[in-house]
Amino acid sequence: METVLLYILGVVVVVIGLALSIGLHEIGHLLPAKAFGVKVTQYMIGFGPTLWSRRKGETEYGVKAVPLGGYIAMIGMFPPAKKGGKVQASSTGFFKQLVQEGAPEKKQSALSTMVDDARQSSADTIGEGEDHRAFYRLPVFKRVIIMLGGPTMNLLIAVVLFAILLMGFGTAQASTTVGSVSQCVLPATSTRQACEPTDEKAPGAAAGLQPGDRLVSIDGAAITSWDQSTAIIRESPGTPLTVIVERDGSPLNLTITPKLTERYVTDAAGKVEKDSAGKAVTQEVGFVGIGPAGELVQQPATAVLPAVGDNIGAVVHMIANLPQRMVDIANAAFGPGERDPNGPISVVGVGRVAGEIASIDTIPVASKIASLLGLLASLNVALFVFNLIPLMPLDGGHVAGALWEGLRRWVARLFKRPDPGPVDTARLMPLTFAVVIVLGGMSLLLIYADIVKPINLFG
Prior knowledge:
Layout (H helix, E strand, L loop, with lengths): L1 H34 L4 E17 L2 E16 L10 E5 L6 E5 L9 H15 L15 H30 L1 E11 L21 H5 L6 E5 L2 E2 L3 H9 L6 E7 L2 E7 L2 E6 L17 E6 L2 E8 L6 H17 L1 H13 L12 H13 L5 H23 L7 H20 L14 H24 L7
Helix pairs in contact: 1-3, 1-8, 1-9, 3-6, 3-9, 3-10, 6-9, 7-11, 8-9, 8-11
């Protein structure tokens, strides 16, 4: 029962953290919008039916039923049609369409109707005497500031969380304490992992090493890191080594002779290297059969921004390869394929991971809190990067539209041409609609995959 409650607690913590991140994202839009005089009619967390709302001044603040996003509603998001147009009812009676004065009425396509309806809906938000407070009336740089306010808030949240995580809790690193001792010698390419009575005993176990022993020195060289001890062992096959360990506060002298055996070659990141044929590369090195115990090491403030940068790079790489990743996820969800533990997951998957972190008994409380903070920090990095994609309705799409307008006006001034006016971003509504459908489809696929074949980070 306690495990179930801890699982639920982990899910609740992440849901609340995500809701706060979304709320602060929208505040990042709200504050500059109000500072620049734009009328904001709504500030909402979530979508769907409104669960609670309260009006303060000209803005309604509220929470909606589906906590998967949020928005602020600003008047005049789209500029009006070109001069000379007028609003006329469409044939359906539900939308408005624009026709030129004196031109014969034409039947509009669905896409044209969608554009006109978006433009008219934007115009309907502007009350009498409020045109000067419309979003599209702002200078380009102010519109860019408003739209970048949300992603910037997520970036700041990520920086703060990474600072708490790295400087307060620290990062898991290999210590000089023995965490595990292999009982037998098995080559890296062995198809089995369990030892059998006929297997040769591993040098570490044969010498009497035990989990919890702290390496003090090897052949007279003081050991300050696990990598240092590994380097000595790998270069000393068949050579007896004098090893001093600290056990229960007292020094203990042992003699260990590393065994020459086959091990995988790994890169700086710890990943197994592969040859041109895709086969894992191995080499024969000295082997003792011990593994390190992990410890949390607090990091300096200078480590925070590089960590955030690495996380941003990982998200950018994931998004750049998103089509292939979604194909892999589909193969895993509907076939025998396996999920990539470093691949994208849905809100359901995030909640599941959070629940697993909170409910595992073998993880200390401090490590659980650190893991949940890291999860929320990574979520905010993902929100930051994803919202910068230059496609509407994402923030990056609005930024791209404003920058394009600024470029057009700059070119017009440069060549002494008439001001081309605001960019008619309403024309992008069909593309926006397509983006929403694609994003919705990907979200449904991820949710389905996280239900039928979830990523299990803990084996």
